Amino acid sequence: MNNLTLDLQQTAVPAGGVRLYWLGQAGFAFKTGAGAILYLDPYLSDACERLHNLKRLSLPAIQAEEVKADWVILTHEHADHLDPDAIPVIARNNPQCRFAGPVGCKPGLVVAGVTPGRITLLKPKRCHDLGAVTVHTAPADHGDISPSALTLLLDFGDVRVLVSGDSSWRPKYIQPLCDLRPDVVLPAINGVFGNMSHLDAAMMVEQAKPRFAIPCHFWTFAEQGAGDPGGFLNACRQLCPATEALTLKPGEGLTIGKAKAPRKHRTRKAKQ
């Protein structure tokens, strides 16, 4: 049993708060104050080396066999997000776990052994109540390689987490999610395959004005681009100094409590 597994089991989360953990790549785990555990885009295997000759450079934060989950939420169907080797293990070992993702994820989930009754399809520009979390969606721009890819806002009640997914920076796409005043932004920063660079990601953070910003989608594969987390932190300090931008190591957790100031609905224009 590794440190992440123990932390997920033993750490108490304050009511209304959420504890999040970076899994490496674009993956995160979340534990709510009510004890629900959710995984987002968990890439926990070497499937990309087997399928695409993309050798993994960092070890996963947890083995699929150790995952205990109530929900697995996916931004799109690529193997470093919908892991074709890990998802079958998670589904088999967690018979009550349910899975949510855009329509492009459905074939991969079915192949992984997830029955249709356990799948919730997330549609763009919608709000989906999953019980443990409410998911607000916006279309991502991942080009023709994943037309149904989504950007997500995970609303845990008193804490809201904006997840870029794999996407170029499209301010108009994400403005409705920014208007919900996210507390945390989790942007991809690798800068290739149509994804935001670290500078794009910092501009996304400036647009959203969260309390915290944590970069992801870097340093897992040599071919995925440089991904400059240090540059991201520096750019955030310049563009949005009120946001606490920080990095997590794989498996490291951070507890986010309710904001001290009340959240207000916001509207503002953004450039395309």
In short:
The protein is of the alpha/beta class and 272 residues long.
For the largest beta-sheet, the strand count, sense and barrel status come to: 7 strands, mixed
CATH structural fold name: Metallo-beta-lactamase, Chain A
Domains (count): 1
The quaternary organization reads as single chain
Mean pLDDT: 94
Topology:
Elements: H1 3-10, E1 18-24, E2 27-32, E3 37-40, H2 47-52, E4 71-73, H3 86-93, E5 98-101, H4 106-111, E6 119-121, E7 127-129, E8 134-139, E9 150-155, E10 160-163, H5 171-178, E11 184-186, H6 198-208, E12 212-213, H7 229-239, E13 244-245, E14 253-256
Parallel strand pairs: 3-4, 4-5, 5-6, 10-11, 11-12, 12-13
Antiparallel strand pairs: 1-2, 1-14, 2-3, 7-8, 8-9, 9-10
Helix pairs in contact: 6-7
List keywords for this structure.
272 residues; alpha/beta; Metallo-beta-lactamase, Chain A; seven-stranded mixed β-sheet; 14 strands; disordered C terminus
Question: Could you walk me through the main structural features you see in this protein, from its secondary elements to its overall organization?
Answer:
- This protein is an alpha/beta fold and 272 residues long.
- The chain has a single domain, classed as Ribonuclease Z/Hydroxyacylglutathione hydrolase-like (Metallo-beta-lactamase, Chain A), CATH 3.60.15.10.
- Helix content is 21%, strand content 21%.
- The protein is built from seven helices and 14 strands.
- The strands form two sheets. A seven-stranded mixed beta sheet has the order 6-5-4-3-2-1-14, covered by helices on one side. It has a seven-stranded mixed beta sheet with strand order 7-8-9-10-11-12-13.
